């Protein structure tokens, strides 16, 4: 099937945001063409690696406990972003998230019962039954069933604008170059984290040690083309969703299973055997996205998370098994740290713990204030002594999920120009505009919410524009 020369609505990008946009536009009466850079096997961008999305709800649902108010959601985002966001747009997204679950379920997406345990997500995040891959497959099946024309191996190499409006896109499809025009376009093509040259331009040589958790197809080509043509930008190039992941992970597409979730219950040291941050600062879903940046700031961008046998059942195990030893000295040798230095670090940490009475208050389900005293940095929650062998260690590298530099949008998902005007026929959804909500930091599941909310809005708005 040949890519047509014209579309009512052109969607660039085939992840969750692009699919939500395509389905919404097609259902609203438009004829939609969706271009996906990858092949069919690797389709879905980063969305195929996800597990959940974060939604507000004022009462328990079939898959979420209790309630999660708009104010709670906003407070969580304000905390992790330190207010670096478009707050009115964020509040709008939160309100819109309340209707997502039934809308997604109409696509054949199923959700599993609420998740209990140390992740503390039972009332905030709805988990996809079968994970992100099942989500993407259901969305593609729905899109195909309702008539969206989907093209794989379709790499958009440049965008042509005139007077703040979309005119055409240059596409390479299976080696053949062509141009496609459209009445409206929805950009859902992600960030630039897989573009090694661009990442090194921002980060320098440390970027060589970054691992890309998701798709290698997020090169940022569309984003760069738009920003060069007077489209307004949001966030800064160095801001990104950066997680501490297993250093043994593949360079691309390792996905969520490479994330190390035991950091809250561990001590983390750099290659010199020294701690460098409070591991117990807050619940893991609110703080895990700071750890990639923290590790990136350490010598050679490597760190190690160390636990003992007391906490091995309190976190989701990653895909790679831990390294283990019967003494701290043996553990140090496994990770090439001077044994006397690591032993001194662990001893200093253990000696800084509060009394046995305080330690007995350890509770992984709450901010238990089970902490150290007189240590730099302190560990402020979940501080247990590391003294029960065997001992375990996971090596850490910065794992980049997506970059936050993107295009500015309004609450109709319209792309904004540098003079503040809204484009008449350009919309954006997903990671390419996530910086409007996430100027820094991250709350688990928010990326998928951004994609679904603004994808749906963009699709409906683009179809509505055709009718006008």
TrEMBL record:
Transmembrane helix in keyword set: no
Cofactor(s) required for function per UniProt: FAD
Statement: the UniProt record of this protein carries the keyword Flavoprotein: yes
GO molecular function ontology, one term from the record: oxidoreductase activity
Keywords: FAD, Flavoprotein, Oxidoreductase
NCBIfam families: CobZ_N-term, PRK08274.1
Protein name: Tricarballylate dehydrogenase
Annotated organism of origin: Colwellia chukchiensis
Organism phylogeny: Bacteria, Pseudomonadati, Pseudomonadota, Gammaproteobacteria, Alteromonadales
